[in-house]
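Weekly sync, protein design subgroup
Attendees: M.S., D.O., the rotation student, P.L. (late)

Item 1: inverse folding check
M.S. brought a backbone from last month's batch and wanted to see whether the design step gives back something sensible before we order anything. D.O. pointed out we never logged the input encoding, so this time it goes straight into the notes. Structure tokens as presented (319 positions):
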């Protein structure tokens, strides 16, 4: 059985850790858990730094996250640099130059699209989340409540609180073991999924009102431009719930949500329910991710982007 210490080179003294751009709950939870685990259990490692690109406010309760660095400082050469939940090199956020300069590089991930971009790659594509991968790598006796909270948070974010098809018996056993550490799991779920600001509710309602049904209801799509977002006084962190809500439409196999990140550039989030491999669709546009949850970036206006991506999805839908 592989443990985290088996993946770490000998005699390392400095370690950097980073997640992907626009980090979701799994990226933040996984990175925070590894950060806390190494600081608590590896006193021989004298420096551990965590790099995260502007974590969402609802994830700031996790221990270690407030200590995260959002830009490169004076220290730039690590003995080891570790990425968590990063599917390819291009998705390393602010810390990419540090990854390049490190003596050794380790990638811990669960994305099926990850071809292995580090010196050492530990990728379990059957795992529900990077947090699940780390739970298996950590010595359970050395996981305290803070580490367990970070791992549990990552797990529920990538499984939709164990609703998605990537949830396995292993996932549930990992979650049970983390719950035994005394975490307030109901609060974590509420803060992550059930509590929304007034602006987030307005934005969700707006996007649902704009939604269109394609292919006899098997694909539900919506979009949001920068101008529309600004008119709602919202930010880029306010629309994460939209694509998940679209996916829940009765009769839908696929959901597509395209949101403008800069003029003429849209990030597209894709979700599926039963059989559609949205990772394969996303890869056609230079993206990737999971079989049931993936993303890509597509240039154009909202109508053009939705047309391109929905046609690609349509080719894969079953009658």
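Designed sequence read out in the meeting:
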């Amino acid at each position: 059985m592989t443990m985290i210490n088996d993946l770490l080179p000998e005699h390392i003294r400095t370690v950097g850790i980073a997640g992907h751009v626009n980090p979701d709950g799994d990226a933040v939870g996984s990175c925070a858990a590894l950060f806390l685990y190494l600081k608590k259990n590896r006193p021989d490692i004298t420096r551990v730094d965590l790099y995260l690109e502007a974590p969402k406010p609802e994830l700031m309760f996790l221990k270690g996250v407030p200590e995260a660095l959002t830009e490169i400082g004076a220290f730039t050469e690590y003995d080891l640099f570790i990425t968590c939940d990063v599917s390819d090199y291009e998705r390393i956020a602010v810390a990419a130059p540090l990854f390049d300069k490190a003596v050794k590089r380790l990638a811990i991930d669960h994305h099926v699209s990850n071809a292995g971009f580090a010196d050492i790659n530990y990728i379990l594509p059957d795992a529900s989340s990077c947090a699940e991968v780390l739970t298996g790598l950590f010595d359970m006796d050395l996981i305290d409540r803070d580490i367990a909270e970070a791992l549990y948070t990552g797990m529920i974010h990538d499984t939709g609180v164990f609703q998605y098809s990537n949830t396995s018996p292993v996932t549930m056993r990992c979650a049970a073991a983390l719950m035994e550490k005394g975490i307030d799991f109901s609060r974590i779920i509420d803060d992550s999924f059930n509590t929304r600001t007034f602006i987030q509710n307005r934005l969700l309602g707006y996007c649902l009102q704009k939604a269109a049904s394609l292919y006899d209801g098997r694909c539900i799509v919506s979009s949001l431009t920068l101008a529309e977002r600004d008119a709602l006084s919202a930010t880029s962190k306010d629309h994460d719930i939209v694509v998940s809500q679209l996916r829940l439409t009765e009769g839908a196999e696929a959901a597509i949500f395209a949101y403008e990140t800069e003029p003429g550039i849209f990030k597209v989030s894709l979700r599926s329910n039963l059989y559609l491999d949205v990772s394969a669709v996303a890869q056609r546009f230079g993206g990737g991710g999971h079989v049931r949850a993936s993303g890509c970036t597509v240039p154009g206006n909202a109508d053009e982007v939705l047309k391109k991506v929905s046609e690609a999805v349509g080719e894969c839908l079953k009658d």
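Discussion: Residues 25-41 form the longest helix (17 residues). The first strand starts at residue 14 and ends at 18.
Action: P.L. to compare against the previous round before Friday.
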